[in-house]
């Protein structure tokens, strides 16, 4: 498991990679502003947030020289952090940003498990975080939900749905865009967007203080410290 906001691998990461990922995340949160909706995924993947620092977002979408680059990332301080010369591109992230129309404002992308759990194939692989692992790190998501207050939360996939249920948060579930789920994901997201006719009322998580600002302090500092204490790296 890797906390990409603290850890780096000399063969995979550029110098200063963890610091750059924190800067990417903080700049992204500024562009989101006060969230009206949260899309909650499973965990950071090696083609996406492991190197970009942002859920459902790849390096090429932040710093690529082709049409994959998102318009809100066209100005500094977004940087790639891997040693992959082509930069990583995550298929699921491409689907998510296409479904959002490339717009960051108002929709926060986050994960149930905030770090990158890799599999037996090594650090350039992914695995589903086991319940014991995500339960040991629930404090990160709980702090985030308390910070942003009453917003609509959508669970992208079964792991996200299980994690939210553990916290007592009711949330509609969307089909994960991977493994043939892209079309269904787009359809379900359209039905649930706050500006659509099927948005419903926002869910207020337990213990919410009703604050609206982006939780820029949670992941780069607070949770990295707790990850040392509770997850063992």
Question: Could you provide a short overview of the structure?
Answer:
This protein is α/β, with parallel strands linked by helices. 36% of the residues lie in helices and 9% in strands.
Task: Provide a descriptive summary of the structure in words.
With 233 residues, the protein is an alpha/beta fold. It has one domain (17-231): Uracil-DNA Glycosylase, subunit E. Helices cover 36% and strands 9% of the residues. The chain has 9 helices and 4 strands, in the order H-E-H-H-H-E-H-H-E-H-E-H-H. Strands 2-1-3-4 form a 4-stranded parallel beta sheet. The longest helix is centred in the N-terminal third of the chain and has 16 residues, at 17-32. It is globular and about 40 Å long. The model is unreliable at 196-233 (pLDDT under 50).
Spans of at least 5 consecutive residues whose pLDDT stays below 50 are 196-233
Could you give the count of β-strands?
Answer: 4
Strand content: 5-15%
CATH class: Alpha Beta
CATH A-level architecture: 3-Layer(aba) Sandwich
Fourth-tier CATH superfamily name: Uracil-DNA glycosylase-like domain
> Could you say what the CATH topology is called?
Uracil-DNA Glycosylase, subunit E
The major beta sheet can be summarized as:
4 strands, parallel
Structural domain tally: 1
What does the radius of gyration come to?
A: 16 Å
Strand order within the widest sheet?
Answer: 2-1-3-4
Notable characteristics:
233 residues; Uracil-DNA Glycosylase, subunit E; 4-stranded parallel sheet; 4 strands; globular; disordered C terminus
Show the helix and strand layout:
Blueprint: H1 17-32, E1 37-43, H2 49-52, H3 59-63, H4 91-99, E2 107-113, H5 131-135, H6 138-148, E3 152-156, H7 158-166, E4 173-174, H8 182-192, H9 218-231
Parallel strand pairs: 1-2, 1-3, 3-4
